[in-house]
Amino acid sequence: LKFAVPAGIGTEEELRAKGDWLKKALVSLQERSLTLEELVESSRFYFGLATDGSAYDEAAVRKLFTKPGIADLLRKGAAALGALTEWNLEIEEKAYRDLIEREGIKGGDLIHPTRLALTGKTVGPGLFEIVDILGKDESVARLNAAAAYIEEKGLESAKANQ
């Protein structure tokens, strides 16, 4: 709290109210953070992600969001997660692995763009840990927002025009 409140993550009351969820989110990041300041900074995506694309790493967008059919694939990922009636890490991962198998693609073809859609970055905690912590509604919303962003910006056709 000593670092998160001044960094604008939230008020002390808001953060304390998140209790167990906040602890889970911070534990997911602690291995990759050397200082408390780094921990706070790397946690920002858990508290929201701009839907205008400004939160996405630009180089990652060029690499991952310009592949043909990626918006549709992210929407299928959102649908797979949205259809779950039980929410836990193993079930979420199975839903995604089943989708990957049905689509006949490599895991990374869906996993890497999904991480970017959910966090704005290409590195961080395990993808399914992120999905689990964000929760169903937020994960589905961010995947659909990324798909809409890709379509709105015409990114899938950008690679063909380069």
Describe the 3D structure.
α5 runs antiparallel to α9. It contains ten helices and no strands. The mean pLDDT is 94.
Descriptors:
162 residues, mainly alpha, 10 helices
Mean pLDDT across every amino acid position: 94
Estimate the helix proportion, in percent.
55-70%
Global Rg: 16 Å
Q: Span from first to last CA?
A: 46 Å
SSE series: HHHHHHHHHH
Major β-sheet profile: none
Assembly type: single chain
Brief rundown of the structure:
This protein has helices at 12-17, 19-30, 36-42, 58-64, 70-82, 89-103, 107-119, 127-134, 136-153, 155-158. The chain is mostly helical and 162 residues long.
Produce the secondary structure layout.
Layout: H1 12-17, H2 19-30, H3 36-42, H4 58-64, H5 70-82, H6 89-103, H7 107-119, H8 127-134, H9 136-153, H10 155-158
